[in-house]
């Protein structure tokens, strides 16, 4: 079938901010869809609230709406743009749920409205509604676990009485397993059933007999309108049922299914997609297999591109989202060519001759109070993927890709903490699913504990344990070489090669031999054991691959093609994590696009399967490799060889802290842009202090310490409160505001080897602790700038933070242009930023953080690299900052880029607000108070004519439900009460009720504000019902404003914030956010919400700038 010509414009619903369960895999899929549909000649309209994704760049759609993803806003976009069709299957669960809400309001999918393409409302409901899906599967003869559906607790009890404990609860229309859980007792059932009903937008749960311990599989399926169906990839979970698939180590293709079992599963997946009615596109079908008798059951189906679709795409080279978009507009699989082979159509099922391993990455260290135990609700914040010829090679590469101090499957310095465990302790740990379990299983196997015993605890399939034993056996061979005193030069080529083909890194071999990584590398190369790179080709080498997408191994043939064009290697940012997310991938992708346009051959090196940077057509060449010294050096050497001995340039300053840490290990001649010496000058505290003194730029007083005694002396000298933070980390890792000497001692212990930073190296002269005086009541400001080789400095954006200093910049809302800073302060900030850029001899991007206290502008730190605000600045100002910086790093001047047209004047006339999105709904046991350690997973953006309107848009987009009626509870620290008075007056203007504790109520009454409800303190109440917690639990509170009380007792505040989190009552924990929110609501009352595309904002801004320029000339 040819493409459809009866539709001309398509609205794509994006997935919104990065949250747990819905990460940048939808940035990848949405970007693919926008690109392919534009290429096909359709007018593409995109709605997405996320500024960090490249999808919301103005080049990718004809109209880009960075607006809150709500039904009200989407209705306005549909009314304004009048699209012919809506594509909801590439925006994750957010896209599907919004499409269904629009359908229910009669705005899409019914005659006279835009058509739903990809999957219609009936198909979405059949897959997402647990009862409908169960009945549909039974109807076509597929087995499902015994279960029942409930819409309230009474129905839930009836189902439980029928099927009995243990059970698993699965809410309908949810993301990342939110609200799911396993109940083994009546108490657990009551709690989980209630939570599950609350988590489901339609208040529906499936109560299913527990199949914990069964093996879990997924099949990625595609279907076209001609009913052609193909399996793109089979995926097997290493962890048994009971761990969410997003939190499980997974392997592709599935390794332990017999051919008969696989064919049965394949047929079931085809029957499933046909019955559900997904007419075109990709779907993910999940199965469980009983390891005892081989029984298969269908668990669930996602009628959309999913997290696993991104993994399957990267694992096979088959672009699922791109093909899904083409299928949605009428093409059939046999009409679409395979991009990688150019010889086969998309109807050929991919086959692969290698093994892919995905391992999640968690952030429990950022969320104190969490158990760290994995379950049916997804908790990971990112993932890595590795490709190897065998499972052992793939597993070891994936483990060292995580960037958590591990060099592979143990055999590194981080394994030492397991040595003191008894066998019994170790086995008990193997039974508990945690991020460390894979390493604990490795230690148990190293001790030669019986395999059957180990398997009975961890429930890994025997085949995988046998593969792991092959790694352990090789390790023991190398330990034997070390005991024999074998010299590196005496190790044979065959021995080196055998270890490398099992995935051992040079760091592991050095650990086992008592040598250094550099010495091992040199000896290995001397023995003739050199990395070779193979190509991902979708067809097991049956056809020649035209797209260079490589992975490393140790064989004889190298498949990197020669080329004479100048090459640039861009080091990516590795796995998503809190503090280093999609913003850095955005910068890397922009670098690739800018350099390709300038005639360079671009080479991307990254290990994150979710991102646009690891799409096979983003760069001229892609290496899916860990970001370690060994692996990066291997790629540099392969590229040098392929270009006839000409060494490539390497970009280290766009991927966050990950590649920046490698800068000092890579030959300085190869680093593009800012030199390693300048990077170290900004990171080394003593050199940095000296530089600031030389420039007469004020800094908060402080010092560096490696012991508690040193830190105590510094704090005594500069005075409390102090800010304590480790050096060389990102995202405020382990940063604390300390109010007294006891708190300081606790903080130093946390940062020493017994704390969570211990495994990352602890404290040393090279990694000291920074102790600075904390500037209370200061306004924090971020600046992104670019300096070229001539010394010209471009100030990209000055961002004023809404929250005062003390809240990590990544968790604070910020605005462009600054809203309260006097012009002279902004001018001083410009001058300081330019002086620092020149003194550091930056060539490329620089981020500087300032604190404004009274009439003094203090510099906090400078980072000569991309920051997480670069995409936001680009969207706000219309200046492609990452592209400009990349060209500057390769020698272009800012003036040349103006002449080229790449660098234009920033647009003005609107206010842009960036707001953080926090993961607290997943972790009800965590205190939601914001502080100096970053905890947000993503961000959203609001754009409007005024700060108030833009701020309300940003809050709405972030999921903060601002009250329009009902009771607002106020609980304020003493220092916040004057501003709290203004908040209370705003609440009265909005007609909202006020509840408060007696202290806050007494203060407000002095100024004529009468509180409607006075509540008891949590710690002083005998019943609990007369407290804020009681009001929240009874549903009487619509919003909470609770500001923590410095270093004093926080027990009441914690209880209030946790209650609000558990009962889904929105809250703010800073007085600045409360002031901004209610100011915005008052403005919105006068000016109802409007929508405007990014392209229009930029066009209006440029017209205004040209008019201003013309008036100045006149």
Please give a structural write-up.
- The chain is of the alpha/beta class.
- Helices cover 37% and strands 19% of the residues.
- It is built from 36 helices and 38 strands.
- The strands form 7 sheets. A 7-stranded antiparallel beta sheet has the order 14-13-10-11-12-15-16, with helices on both faces. It has a 7-stranded antiparallel beta sheet with strand order 31-30-27-28-29-32-33, sandwiched between helices.
- The longest helix is centred in the middle third of the chain and has 22 residues, at 462-483.
- It starts with 8 loop residues before the first strand and ends with a helix.
- Residues 754-765 have low confidence and may be disordered.
List the helices and strands and how they pair.
Layout: E1 9-13, H1 25-39, E2 43-47, E3 63-65, H2 71-81, E4 85-87, H3 92-104, E5 115-116, H4 121-128, H5 130-139, E6 147-150, H6 153-163, E7 167-171, E8 181-183, H7 186-199, E9 205-209, E10 215-223, E11 229-237, E12 250-252, H8 259-276, E13 281-289, E14 296-302, H9 307-316, H10 320-328, E15 355-361, E16 382-388, H11 391-401, H12 423-430, H13 437-446, H14 451-458, H15 462-483, H16 493-501, H17 506-513, H18 517-526, E17 532-535, E18 549-553, E19 567-571, H19 582-597, E20 601-606, E21 621-624, H20 629-642, E22 649-651, H21 657-662, H22 676-683, H23 685-695, E23 702-705, H24 708-718, E24 722-726, E25 736-738, H25 741-751, E26 769-773, E27 779-787, E28 793-804, E29 814-816, H26 823-839, E30 844-853, E31 856-863, H27 870-877, H28 881-889, H29 894-900, E32 911-917, E33 938-944, H30 947-957, E34 967-971, H31 977-989, E35 993-997, H32 998-1005, E36 1013-1015, H33 1028-1033, E37 1037-1042, H34 1051-1062, E38 1067-1068, H35 1071-1086, H36 1094-1113
């Amino acid at each position: 079938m040819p493409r459809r010509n009866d539709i001309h414009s398509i609205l794509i619903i994006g997935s919104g901010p990065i949250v747990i369960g819905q990460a940048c895999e939808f940035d990848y899929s949405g970007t693919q869809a926008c690109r392919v549909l534009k290429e096909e000649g359709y007018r593409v309209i995109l709605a997405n609230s996320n500024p960090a994704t490249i999808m919301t760049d103005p080049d990718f759609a004809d109209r880009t709406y960075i607006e809150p993803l709500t039904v009200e806003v989407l209705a306005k976009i549909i009314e304004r743009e009048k699209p012919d069709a809506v594509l909801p299957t590439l925006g994750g669960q957010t896209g599907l749920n919004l499409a269904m809400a629009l359908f229910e309001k009669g705005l899409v999918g019914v005659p006279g409205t835009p058509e739903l393409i990809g999957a219609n409302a009936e198909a979405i409901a059949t897959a997402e509604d647990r009862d409908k899906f169960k009945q549909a599967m039974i109807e076509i003869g597929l087995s499902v676990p015994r279960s029942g559906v409930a819409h309230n607790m009474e129905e839930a009890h009836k189902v439980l009485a029928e099927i009995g404990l243990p059970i698993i609860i699965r809410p309908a229309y949810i993301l990342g397993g939110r609200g799911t859980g396993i109940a083994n007792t009546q108490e657990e059932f009551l709690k989980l059933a209630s939570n599950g009903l609350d988590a489901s937008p339609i208040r529906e749960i499936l109560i299913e007999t527990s199949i914990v311990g069964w093996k879990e599989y997924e099949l990625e399926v595609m279907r076209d309108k001609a009913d052609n169906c193909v399996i793109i990839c089979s995926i097997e979970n290493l962890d048994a049922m009971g761990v969410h698939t997003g939190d499980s180590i997974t392997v592709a293709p599935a390794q332990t299914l017999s051919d008969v079992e696989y064919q049965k599963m394949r047929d079931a997946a085809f029957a499933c997609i046909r019955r559900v009615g997904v007419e075109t596109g990709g779907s993910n079908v999940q199965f469980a297999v009983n390891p005892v008798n081989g029984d298969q059951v269908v668990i669930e189906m996602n009628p959309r591109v999913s997290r696993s679709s991104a993994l399957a795409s990267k694992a096979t080279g088959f672009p699922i989202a791109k093909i899904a978009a083409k299928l949605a507009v009428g093409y059939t699989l046999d009409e679409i060519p395979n991009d990688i082979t150019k010889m086969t159509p998309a109807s050929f099922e991919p086959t692969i001759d290698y093994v892919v391993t995905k391992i999640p990455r968690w952030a429990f260290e950022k969320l104190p109070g969490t158990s760290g135990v994995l379950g049916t609700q997804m908790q990971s914040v990112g993932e890595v993927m590795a490709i190897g010829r065998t499972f052992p090679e793939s597993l070891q590469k994936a483990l060292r890709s995580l960037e958590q101090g591990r060099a592979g499957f143990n055999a590194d310095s981080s394994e030492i903490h397991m040595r003191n465990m008894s066998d019994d302790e170790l086995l008990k740990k193997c039974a508990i699913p945690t991020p460390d379990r894979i390493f604990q299983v490795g230690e148990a196997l190293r001790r030669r504990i019986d395999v059957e015993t180990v398997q009975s605890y961890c429930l890994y399939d025997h085949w995988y344990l046998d593969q792991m034993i092959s790694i352990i056996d090789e390790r023991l061979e190398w330990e034997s070489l070390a005991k024999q005193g074998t010299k590196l030069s005496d190790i044979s080529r065959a021995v080196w090669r055998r270890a490398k083909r099992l995935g051992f890194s040079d760091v592991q071999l050095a650990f086992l031999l008592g040598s250094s990584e550099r010495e091992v590398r040199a000896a290995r190369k001397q023995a003739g054991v050199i990395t070779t790179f193979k190509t991902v080709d979708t067809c097991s080498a049956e056809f020649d691959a035209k797209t260079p997408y490589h992975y490393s191994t140790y064989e004889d043939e190298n498949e990197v093609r020669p080329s004479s064009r100048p090459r640039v290697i861009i080091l990516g940012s590795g796995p998503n994590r809190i503090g280093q997310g999609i913003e850095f991938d955005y910068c890397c992708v922009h670098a690739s696009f800018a350099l390709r346009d300038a005639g360079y051959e671009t080479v991307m090196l990254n290990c994150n399967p979710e991102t646009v940077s690891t799409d096979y057509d983003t760069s001229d060449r892609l290496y899916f490799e860990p970001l370690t010294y060994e692996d990066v050096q291997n790629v540099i050497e392969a590229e040098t060889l392929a270009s006839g001995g000409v060494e490539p340039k390497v970009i280290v300053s766009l991927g966050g802290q990950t590649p920046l840490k490698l800068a000092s290990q890579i030959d300085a001649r190869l680093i593009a842009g800012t030199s390693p010496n300048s990077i170290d000058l900004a990171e080394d505290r003593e050199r940095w202090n000296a530089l600031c003194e030389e420039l007469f730029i004020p800094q908060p007083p402080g010092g560096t310490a490696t012991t508690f005694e040193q830190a105590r002396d510094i704090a005594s000298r500069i005075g409390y409160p102090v800010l304590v933070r480790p050096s060389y980390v990102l995202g405020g890792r382990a940063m604390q505001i300390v109010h007294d000497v006891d708190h300081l001692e606790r903080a130093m212990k946390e940062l020493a080897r017994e704390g969570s930073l211990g495994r990352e190296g602890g404290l040393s002269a090279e990694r000291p602790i920074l102790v600075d005086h904390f500037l209370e009541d200061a306004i924090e400001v971020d600046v992104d700038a670019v300096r070229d080789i001539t010394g010209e400095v471009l100030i990209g954006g000055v961002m004023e933070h809404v929250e005062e200093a003390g809240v990590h910049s990544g968790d604070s809302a910020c605005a462009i242009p600054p809203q309260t800073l006097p012009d002279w302060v902004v001018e001083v900030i410009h001058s300081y930023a330019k002086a620092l850029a020149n003194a550091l001899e930056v060539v490329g991007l620089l981020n500087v953080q300032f604190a404004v206290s009274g009439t003094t502008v203090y510099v906090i730190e400078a980072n000569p690299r991309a920051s997480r605000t670069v995409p936001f600045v680009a969207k706000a100002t219309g200046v492609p900052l990452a592209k400009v910086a990349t060209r500057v790093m390769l020698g272009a001047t800012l003036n040349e880029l103006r002449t080229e047209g790449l660098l234009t004047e920033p647009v003005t006339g609107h206010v842009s607000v960036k707001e953080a999105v926090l993961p607290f709904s997943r972790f009800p046991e965590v205190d939601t108070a914001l502080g100096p350690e970053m905890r947000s997973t993503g961000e959203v953006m609001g754009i409007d004519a005024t700060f108030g309107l833009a701020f309300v848009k940003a809050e709405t987009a972030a999921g903060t439900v601002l009250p329009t009626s009902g009771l607002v509870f106020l609980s304020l620290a003493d220092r916040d009460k004057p501003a709290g008075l203004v908040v209370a007056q705003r609440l009265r203007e909005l007609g909202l009720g006020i509840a408060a504790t007696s202290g806050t109520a007494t203060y407000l009454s002095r100024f004529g504000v009468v509180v409607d409800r006075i509540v008891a303190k949590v710690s002083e109440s005998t019943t609990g019902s007369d407290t804020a917690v009681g009001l929240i639990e009874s549903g009487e509170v619509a919003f909470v404003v609770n500001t923590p009380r410095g270093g004093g007792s926080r027990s009441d505040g914690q209880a209030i914030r946790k209650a609000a989190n558990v009962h889904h009552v929105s809250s703010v924990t800073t007085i600045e956010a409360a002031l901004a929110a209610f100011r915005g609501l008052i403005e919105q009352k006068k000016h109802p919400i409007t929508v405007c595309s990014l392209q229009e904002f930029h066009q209006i801004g440029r017209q205004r700038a040209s008019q201003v320029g013309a008036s100045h000339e006149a």
